[in-house]
Design goal:
Layout (H helix, E strand, L loop, with lengths): L9 H12 L3 H14 L4 E7 L5 E6 L6 H6 L12 H7 L8 H8 L1 E7 L6 E7 L2 E8 L4 E7 L6 H6 L3 H16 L6 E6 L2 E6 L4 H9 L7 E7 L4 E7 L5 E2 L4 E5 L2 E3 L2 H11 L7 E2 L2 E6 L5 E3 L8 E3 L2 H18 L56 H10 L27 E3 L3 E6 L2 E6 H19 L4 E11 L2 H17 L2 E6 L2 E8 L7 H14 L5 H16 L9 H12 L14 E5 H7 L2
Parallel strand pairs: 1-7, 12-15
Antiparallel strand pairs: 1-2, 2-6, 3-4, 3-6, 4-5, 7-8, 9-10, 10-15, 11-14, 12-13, 16-17, 18-19, 19-20, 20-24, 21-23, 22-23
Helix pairs in contact: 1-5, 2-7, 9-10, 12-13, 12-15, 12-16, 13-14, 14-15
Bound molecules: adenosine-5'-diphosphate and magnesium ion.
Length: about 600
């Protein structure tokens, strides 16, 4: 028998390793620009062709490299930034691993021109597929220019995975945006296909936000600033009046590095809670500074998750800080923000357990009262359930005394008269019932229908999986991964198929067959986030939470127009539900305006 194990050639090993660091043109942009910043550049030009497929070039006026360093820079684990393991500890927020240039050189044609101020001549180096093709001495400006051409030229499988130019371009700008927001004093210029598409002159933070988001944002920025022993927090949040439906600009940074943090996001949203509706999103740009040894940064350069040692205490500090700033701005008319009663930001004492800071809220505050001026929302239609029950009772329907009595109210289609369903504002389905006009919230109704369906799939293990063509990779923090392990079995019951890739990464290989066009990664994330929000060990509760988070994510939104047939089916399915009147989290789905009410109004 011949031996069958052999070592992979370096070039292949490098390509495999490169896949970790360089996933798309945007990763090249990120790594190169971060290197320029590390080299103390003040002006950085980013030149892009074909969304980075054919060229990513970064020109900086940083400190440059010597001839030997220029050559060394492309070796794996070659870095000038870490010498001892203590350095590693202090610096690792940026993820220095000395791998970026080696990785880029493994999968593209790379050209480097660099000169230090103390050298008369610079170095010109060409590398492709990890092989040095030429090295020469040349005249060039102080600083470094790196061109990365034909990304993945030697890894067709990866090239195929690149998305449309529009998507790749968006990814590039996402990276640039995150970097520019922590380096307002640095000038950035972006040139795409020979046209300058972005120019950010040196600025302060507020100006930088305005440069990036447009002038309109200036008037909505409220400064936040808080210093505690646990962290310094500063930045800007938007006035509640500017909260919008849909995507908002929401950024957390820790020690100048962009992070995602669903738990802290919740803290911000809690501060806004009395001021905006659940579907609106505020803008925020929030910067934490903490001791590096109080966070667990996953050193992987492509990850954006960070675990804080004092997460719970920081949650409260953040929530109160934002709330207080909103209050000082006089954005909350009815909350008493007298300084005498202002919440004290607790200085954290790790030996004591923390408690929720007290905020004085006027219990009589009614956001629907007209005295709150222009911004008053349309008042909710008043619903007299008691009267409604009576209305149905009179029609011979038994009234059960159970707390969920309303759940059985509309169960029989008998109470529905001639379905002439009408969709109002792409949000409500109106239909006539014996006692009056029934209004059904289409989104909530769908949430209820899907919730009951998913819940039964989980308990009966009935979900059908559908394999995805291109498995997507999802990177989690260790706490998220452990949250996933709690719900993974139930998710499989729904039809998800996930495989563990190690290092808290997972591949999503299958999704429930009834889901179409969903962002699987976002869906899985939202289910994990929901599970983390309020931990529960009771299986029944976990099942319900899981079913609800999936229903929330997949239900048709307000704003979707429905055909007559879809409305019919929706109403049928709703009344086939066990509890058609409320969403699982207690929001009303249905209201009826009785004939009497209508007549009264029209008198
Ligand atoms: P790391 O940034 O983790 O050190 P890289 O592979 O990104 O690893 O870069 C390797 C080394 O090359 C850096 O440590 C630095 O010394 C040098 N280098 C890279 N880019 C630049 C640049 N634009 N200007 C000066 N030196 C650079
Ligand atoms: Mg680097």
């Amino acid at each position: 028998m011949t031996d069958i194990i052999h070592l992979l050639p370096d070039s292949i090993a490098n390509q495999i390793a490169a896949g970790e660091v360089i996933q798309r043109p945007a990763s090249v942009v990120k790594e190169l620009v971060e290197n320029s910043l590390d080299a103390n550049a003040k002006h950085i030009h980013i030149i892009i062709k074909d969304a980075g497929r054919t060229l990513v070039q970064v020109i900086d006026d940083g400190k440059g490299m010597s001839m030997t360093d220029a050559r060394m820079a492309f070796e794996r684990h070659a870095t000038s930034k870490i010498k001892t393991s203590e350095d590693l500890f202090a610096l690792y927020t940026r993820g220095f691993r000395g791998e970026a240039l080696a990785s880029v050189a493994a999968i593209a044609h790379v050209e480097l021109k660099t000169r230090r101020a103390e050298d008369e001549m610079g170095t010109w180096l060409k590398i492709a597929g990890s092989k040095v093709e030429s090295q020469e001495t040349i005249f060039c400006a102080v600083g470094t220019t790196i061109s990365v051409k034909n990304i993945f030229f030697n890894v067709p499988a990866r090239r195929k995975f690149l998305k449309s130019n529009e998507t790749e371009r968006r990814n590039i700008f996402t990276e640039i945006e995150r970097i520019a927001l922590v380096n307002p004093d640095i000038e950035f210029t972006v040139i795409e296909n020979d046209v300058q598409t972005m120019h950010l002159p040196p600025a302060n933070l507020r100006q930088r936000i305005v440069q990036m988001q447009g002038k309109g944002i200036n008037q909505q920025l409220i400064e936040i600033n808080e210093e505690t022993t646990l962290a310094k927090i500063h930045g800007y949040v938007s006035t509640p009046q500017f909260a919008r439906k849909g995507r908002a600009n929401q950024f957390f940074f820790v020690n100048n590095r962009y992070i995602r943090h669903p738990f802290f996001h919740k803290a911000v949203m809690t501060a806004y809670e009395p001021l905006i509706s659940a579907t609106e999103n505020p803008n925020y740009f929030i910067y934490f500074e903490v001791e590096p040894d109080t966070i667990d940064v996953n050193i992987h350069p492509t990850k954006t998750e960070v675990k804080f040692e004092n997460e719970r205490a920081l949650w409260q500090i953040l929530m109160v800080t934002v709330k207080e700033s909103l209050g000082k701005f006089n954005a909350i008319p009815s909350i008493d923000f007298d300084t005498a009663d202002a919440p004290d930001i607790p200085i954290f004492d790790p030996s004591k357990s923390t408690s929720m800071p007290k905020v004085n809220i006027n219990p009589d505050y009614n956001p629907f009262q007209p005295s709150y001026g222009e911004s008053t929302r349309i008042s909710k239609p008043r619903l007299d359930w008691e009267q409604m029950y009576r209305g149905f009772e009179n029609e011979g329907k038994p009234m059960s005394g159970s707390p969920d009595a309303d759940a059985t109210l509309f169960q029989s289609n008998e109470s529905l008269v001639s379905p002439k369903h009408y969709q109002y504002k792409e949000k409500y389905i109106l239909t006539s019932v014996k006692s009056g006009l029934m209004i059904i919230d289409q989104h909530r109704s769908h949430v209820r229908i899907l919730f009951e369906k998913y819940l039964s799939q989980i308990t009966n293990r009935k979900g059908i999986s559908q394999r995805v063509l291109f498995p997507e990779r999802i990177e989690l923090t260790s706490s998220e991964a452990s949250s996933l392990s709690e719900i993974q079995e139930d998710m499989e019951a729904l039809g998800f198929e996930m495989s563990d890739l190690g290092n808290n990464s997972f591949a999503i290989q299958g999704i429930p067959s009834e889901l179409q066009n969903v962002d699987a990664v976002a869906l899985v994330r939202s289910m994990i986030d929901k599970n983390m929000e309020t931990g529960s060990n009771i299986q029944e509760q976990m099942h319900e939470k899981l079913a609800l988070s999936m229903a929330d994510f997949t239900a048709i939104p307000a704003g979707k127009s429905l055909t007559e047939e879809e409305m019919l089916r929706m109403v049928d399915q709703l009344f086939a539900c066990q509890s058609p009147n409320h969403t699982p989290d207690g929001k009303s789905i249905i209201t009826v305006i009785s004939d009497d009410e209508m007549e009264n109004k029209l008198k």
